[in-house]
Amino acid sequence: MSEVVLEDIRGAHARIRERIHFTPVLTSTRINELSGALLFFKCENFQKTGSFKARGAANAVFSLTDAEAARGVATHSSGNHAAALAWAAGLRGIPAFIAMPRTVSRVKLASVERLGGRVVFCDPTHKAREEAAEKIVRETGAAFIHPFDDPRVIAGQGTAALELLGDVLDLDVVVCPIGGGGLLAGTLIVAKALRPGIMVFAGEPEGAADASLSFSSGVRRPVEHPVSIADGLLAFVGDLTFPVIQRHADGIATVSDDAIAAAMRQIWDIMKIAVEPSGAVAYAAIAEGKVAVAGRRVGVILSGGNVEFGGPAVAK
Amino acid sequence: MSEVVLEDIRGAHARIRERIHFTPVLTSTRINELSGALLFFKCENFQKTGSFKARGAANAVFSLTDAEAARGVATHSSGNHAAALAWAAGLRGIPAFIAMPRTVSRVKLASVERLGGRVVFCDPTHKAREEAAEKIVRETGAAFIHPFDDPRVIAGQGTAALELLGDVLDLDVVVCPIGGGGLLAGTLIVAKALRPGIMVFAGEPEGAADASLSFSSGVRRPVEHPVSIADGLLAFVGDLTFPVIQRHADGIATVSDDAIAAAMRQIWDIMKIAVEPSGAVAYAAIAEGKVAVAGRRVGVILSGGNVEFGGPAVAK
Predict the structure, then answer these.
(1) Pair A53, A177: CB distance under 8 Å
(2) What is the set of domains in chain B, with CATH numbers?
(3) Cβ pair B272:A311 closer than 8 A
(4) ipTM value for the complex
(5) Which of A70, A296, B11, B122 fits a disulfide with A172 by CB distance 3.0 to 4.6 angstroms?
(6) What are phi and psi of A99, to 5 degrees?
(7) How far is CA A251 from CA A22, A169, A245, in A?
(8) Which residues of A touch B305 (CB under 8 A)?
(9) Which residues, given as ranges, of chain A have pLDDT below 70?
């Protein structure tokens, strides 16, 4: 499959549903009052390994034939995809080789190692990471699983929206974050197929607004040095994901790091749950009025919860 | 009713169930591995106003006759009971007068005021707070609703365990925190009536171990200057609650502030939810090995989630 369609996402869900959490959808009277809409929060912060990345990783790992799987899987990532792939490989009893920059934080390294990932250190550049992963693949025959630009991963990520639209009927709008675009592409494919009139928007950090720029110009345009507290959303929108986004998305709203931090804080204060900065970006776009939601029924994907206790510090 | 029995708690639940959240019970594979038991977390941090106190306050407010209710309710508290009573009174459309020390934090004051509570400031001593509340009652005829030593409040707090035991069959143990003892007394009455073989333990901060001391000596004994990061558990165990605890509890374990902070951190890191220090005390007692849970099915009441984002800072 090269172009992912609804049936691929249904197939992915059938493949992974016994392995992942069917995450809850939370609501809050007070947040509804603040936003003037009815918001339904899909809590992927409660997902296995703490983010939606477990969905795509599990779908990719369990799509492999036994012969392919026997040689393991590989990727380059220092974030949620690394932990998710290590976890999914562990479920299948195969090795996961993860190329990580030497500069990776102790916490992220510990998380991948705890899940059984075999970490290969490399220099902290995107090129060095890609080369390290390629070298692993050459030497081990492991299957490379890209963090987002892979049909199996896109189909897996789409299962979050599949659950959300099944749980909450009559949604008018869905909002999710965008980094490389795997979650947004999967969400678009599901939402537009199941409910043609639905609007789907993404939130993106101002400091890593390549998707917004690419979407408005019609051509993939990278940002030179992306920077944001939403460290899961710094990737450049993908070759496979961008065409889906270009065709189906209703808009990409950019939000400042301050708005992201304020959204994290509001979700913590009111809903009592931990979301990481990347996970708060969709709600930040709503809270900032960047997405028109007044009076509507809105699905919001809280994509992950891997943030260290006590931080990041947020001005009060 | 002076002695609270199971039927009072069932009656309380019938009275309040449409007004409160039937809170979820969460589990975590990793926390089960760490504790060597099967833990079922009753998430009162997701309760209305952010703590189980909404249950007792709602039961008390909706137990009043229309004539009584018309004059409002009053209490002294700077914490979760104050917010809960303001909220419950607001639901019934009656005033809630809250005596608070002048030194109360801006956040706690704002919370009570946002919920419509009428705050009366007093000096920051227990005596001054009691006198301020008495004065309000004399002047307004409001019904005084004690934070814990009131049968209506005890019955309301017991509804958390009533839901928990209905949701999770075959629990061997329940663990909850103890401050004044309203939650523990209500939990004991429910648990021992529904499931006579069950063990019920409480966790208490070392710096406010009056209940532990009283329980082991058989006589209510205050602690001179209680101090703990678990600021919801500093109250002296009550006249009404202590006899219930003395008769039915299987033990009270004390935990250090460091252990409480570590438990908060672990719940955040692994379960991605916010619990306040007082809300983490029951789990702290388990994590510290102070309560024997190995191989057992254990209900753990996470009593509240009202803790400011980013804090308290915890050593890593």
Answers:
(1) no
(2) 6-51+150-302 (3.40.50.1100), 54-144 (3.40.50.1100)
(3) no
(4) 0.90
(5) A296
(6) -80, 120
(7) 28, 22, 9
(8) 272
(9) 1, 310-316
